[in-house]
Amino acid sequence: MSFSGTVSKISHEGGLLASFQGKTPGLGTNIRISGGKRLGRVETVVGSIQNPMIHIFPLSKGIDGINTIGSPIEIAPRDRTPKSRLNNRENNRSNDRRDGSDRETNLKPGDWICPKCKNHNYASKKICNRSTCKIKKPQDSGRDSGRDSGRGRRDTPRDGRDRSTKESNLRPGDWICPKCKNHNYASKDICNRSNCDTRKPRQGQGSKTTSKRPRNQNPKDNWSKGKGRRPNQSRR
């Protein structure tokens, strides 16, 4: 006589107790709702010979034990897929997780992959949603742009400065210093970086380096000339 049974109640351990008829299943046998989801494995057999019960524990992921009470059960069929094929399937999944291809198949129009940390961001996100990253959304937010930015990073010059990100924040009249790449506002005619002092490029004219700006003189420079406070002069 083949195995058949019914889920009776929830056990103290959080598993399921099920009564059955027929051949006693071996320990570790997979049990499922008849024609449906797997409940878990047989952990032990309890009860008397006249009224035996199997303890199914632990339950499979996503199974709500209360909803299964009263359901008919059966031994789940074995997975007859060759081990070599299972290993190849698992290797393919791990490779997909590694290169991010499985994430890109889930992209919706406008979604983008962060070129730095490979995080999947929704179209509404202007900055990478991962707290440890905060990279700004590339100008081209399509799928191809996400992959290209992650591989080649063609917008990043040799000096390491992300020129595309900086230029995307420029307002009308703002300019990038041709020497130090500093972002200057439109009102600045000379680069605002103190160690640069390069003039704002004008149409038809190249940039020129101006003389250094006048700096406030150190008051100690006048002490040797007798203009400063004398050493023994008391304060009033």
Characteristics of this structure?
236 residues; alpha+beta; Thrombin, subunit H; 3 domains; 6-stranded antiparallel barrel; two-stranded antiparallel ribbon; 10 strands
Descriptive report:
This protein is an alpha+beta fold and 236 residues long. It folds into three domains: 4-75, Probable tRNA pseudouridine synthase domain (Thrombin, subunit H, Beta Barrel), CATH 2.40.10.230; 100-151, no CATH class; 170-212, no CATH class. The chain is built from five helices and ten strands. It has helices spanning 65-68, 83-99, 101-104, 143-151, 163-167, and strands at residues 4-10, 16-21, 30-33, 38-47, 52-59, 72-75, 112-113, 120-121, 175-176, 183-184. The strands form three sheets. The chain has a six-stranded antiparallel β-barrel. Strands 7-8 form a two-stranded antiparallel sheet. β7 (112-113) and β8 form a beta hairpin. The model is unreliable at 142-165 (pLDDT under 50).
Number of helices: 5
Secondary structure: number of strands:
10
**Strand ordering within the main sheet:** 1-2-5-4-3-6
Strand content: 15-25%
How many angstroms separate the termini?
Answer: 114 Å
- CATH homologous superfamily annotation of the largest domain: Probable tRNA pseudouridine synthase domain
Q: Which CATH-level-2 architecture of the largest domain?
A: Beta Barrel
Poorly predicted runs are: 142-165
Question: How does the helix and strand content classify structurally?
Answer: alpha+beta
Radius of gyration, taken over Cα atoms and rounded to an integer in Å: 36 Å
CATH top level class name of the largest domain: Mainly Beta
CATH topology of the largest domain: Thrombin, subunit H
Mean pLDDT: 75
Note the overall shape. Answer: rod-shaped
Relative helix content: 10-25%
Main sheet summary: 6 strands, antiparallel, barrel
Number of domains: 3
* Strand and helix order: EEEEEHEHHEEHHEE
